[in-house]
Amino acid sequence: MKRLAALSLLALGLASFGAQAQPEFEQVEKGRYLATVGDCTACHTSDPQKPFAGGVEISTPFGKLVGANITPDSETGIGNWTYDDFKRAMSEGIGHGGKRLYGAMPFTAYTKVTDEDNRAIWAYLQTLEPIHNPVETNQLPFPFNIRTSLIGWNWLNFDRGVYQPDMSKSAEWNRGAYLVQGLGHCGTCHTPKNMIGGDKNDNFLQGTEIENWWAPNITAANHQGIGRWSEQDIKDYLRTGVNRYDIASGPMAEQVKNSSQYWKEEDLQAVAVYLKSLGVKDEKVPAPLKGDDKQMIAGRHIYFDRCSACHGSSGKGEKNIFPQLANNALVNAPEPVSLAHVVLAGSRGVDTDARPTAPAMPAFASIMTDEEIATVLTYIRNSWGNSAPAVSADDVKKMRERLTP
Questions:
Q1: Count of domains forming the chain
Q2: Looking at CB atoms within 10 Å, which of 93, 249, 267, 298 has the fewest?
Q3: Are the beta carbons of 373 and 311 closer than 8 angstroms?
């Protein structure tokens, strides 16, 4: 009888443990997913063998910052933080001990994250292996390294508060808005910045230059945005890094590889619905250069000699291999930053679980002059339904200098 009683008590205890462990497991798994949605790896993992131990250099117009160690190491990570410390960092941009955080840590977006989601992320971070890795995060020159200046920066650029649903919209639309504005922090790259690095929210997601790439307009504008993209085009791009119009490269390739390829189908759909709702009023479309323009004539010859074999004589490309140049929003961007970058240095698309073979673009820096590249880009930017300002040899020269070690 004693043995039966003991077994009964053990079974009861195991059942009780299971009831408690299941919610904890679910919360950790939810946090793992949300940390992936937030692409925490991008700034906090420099060595894949040391996940989340920091060390990623982040270039800003004001100097370099370095991603912090966010493993639970008590000396070099966040092992001495409480949940309230973590939530304050996410919601207010203030870390452990009252240290103010720079906007490179996108707390201006993360402030919209709910307490429930923050708790899940925190629960996941506590399960990481503590890694001792000292990181000096602030490597900005004087006076930008003075953190008290962030009081004024926040006053000008930061609106604190959890995302508030728009009750006139669907639950799906609100989920998409929550992801794009919050954890996805899409505006951190795609929203133009003011002189001190804050977002120009009146031009939300309308494109800007970042790290020698053009983060394009991702509103539903037809000419410079993704208005021609279908919801499926958006989902394909975020899931695989490829659609009929574009192939992810540069920082966006990293985002797809580390983050959006793992998003749930319903979250990709919600984001697509939300982005397609963001129209731009009075989009100004420049008139294309005329076909008898000297740059257009010379550019056409270069294009058919160097580019048409892959991108086609009419700029239609080859689906999922060579992007379509005709009616392409990135081609129509106000600045030819990404185009010059890719032609000079080449590019390899992102490899994902869905598309493990990444298409590539060769570099032409050694075989084409700045004038030739400028000329062919001008032709591409004013052909097949495209219209954008001409590219100068000086534009290409500046990019060449930036890309030269």
A1: 3
A2: 298
A3: no
